[in-house]
Design brief:
This protein is an alpha/beta fold. It has helices at 37-52, 67-77, 95-107, 128-136, 191-197, 242-255, and strands at 2-7, 9-11, 33-35, 56-63, 81-86, 113-117, 139-149, 154-160, 166-172, 175-179, 202-205. It has a nine-stranded mixed β-sheet with strand order 9-8-7-10-6-1-4-5-11, with helices on both faces. Strands 2-3 form a two-stranded antiparallel ribbon. Helix 2 crosses helix 5 and helix 3 crosses helix 4 (128-136). The longest helix has 16 residues, at 37-52.
């Protein structure tokens, strides 16, 4: 089995963020970057399948040179080799563009299973996995909480539906799986793994190598403005007996807060 696992670099969770002068994104200079949380769980899920049987795990990442850090970390955890689509033209790309480039890089690999994080920590589109499956004409399952390879080319997965319902289905491979955070306990890279990571194959590709041009990766979605949430505080004391207070509260939840 060949497993392709997609990883994205995002600002570290404890990073102190500043809004850029044009207010269209954050200032990235000086920030530390790490693998997005859901992607980290995806790497672990791929490695567990590998350890349960024979499989090759290939890490796939897009972006400039800073993406190399996440790739090396995934290799140190146990992935076998890496594909790095190295292009600064992908900065600020939307979900459809990202999926298009991932699909172009994945086609020649003919992977049995492609694992993505359910969503990234920075943009949370929740759309890259479904779009990638569409580009590759593969089956797709989102919000996966458990997975187990079966002997007949299928994958048994449990995934979350609306209202916290869990559905377990058998998916015929090849397929794209969107992994939720918390699916497993993520391992730390061992010293041996860190030392071996540098000698593992890393293929660097440009857009031209994938048959894509700058026009092909022009974002369809543009961020107009970003900002920090405005902090507000407001409290209101409801007076009367228990029945009167309850009626006032329900009225406000329905008409003011609009949560009921």
């Amino acid at each position: 089995m060949k497993i392709l696992v997609c990883v994205k670099q995002v600002p570290e969770k404890d990073a102190r963020l500043r809004i850029a002068g044009d207010e269209t994104w954050i200032v990235e200079d000086g920030l530390g970057f790490a693998i997005s949380e859901c992607d980290r769980y995806g790497v672990e899920a791929a490695l567990r399948i590998k350890e349960a049987g024979e499989a090759e795990v290939v890490v796939l990442s897009l972006g400039g040179e800073r993406a190399s850090k996440g790739i090396k970390e995934a290799l140190a955890m146990g992935c076998d080799r890496a594909i790095h689509v190295n292009s600064d033209e992908l900065l600020g790309s939307d979900a459809i563009t990202i999926a298009k480039v991932l699909a172009a890089a994945a086609k020649s690999e003919e992977a049995d299973l492609i694992i993505c994080g359910q969503q990234s920590d920075d943009l949370s589109y929740n759309a890259v996995g479904p779009a990638l499956a569409q580009f590759l004409d593969m089956r797709h399952v989102q919000i996966v909480l458990e997975m187990e390879p079966l002997a007949d080319g299928r994958l048994k997965v449990s995934h979350e539906l609306d209202n916290n319902l869990i559905e377990t289905v058998d998916v015929q491979l090849p397929a794209v799986i969107g992994v939720q955070s918390g699916i497993n306990d993520v391992r730390y890279a061992s010293l041996k793994g860190i030392m071996q990571a540098g000698s593992k194959p890393q293929q660097k590709l440009g857009l031209a190598d994938l048959g894509l041009s700058a026009d092909d990766v022009t974002p369809k979605v543009r961020i107009e403005k970003v900002g920090f949430p405005v902090r507000t505080s407001q409290a209101e004391i409801l007076e009367g007996d228990a029945k009167e207070v309850a009626n006032q509260l329900v009225h406000k939840l329905i008409n003011d807060a609009k949560v009921l």
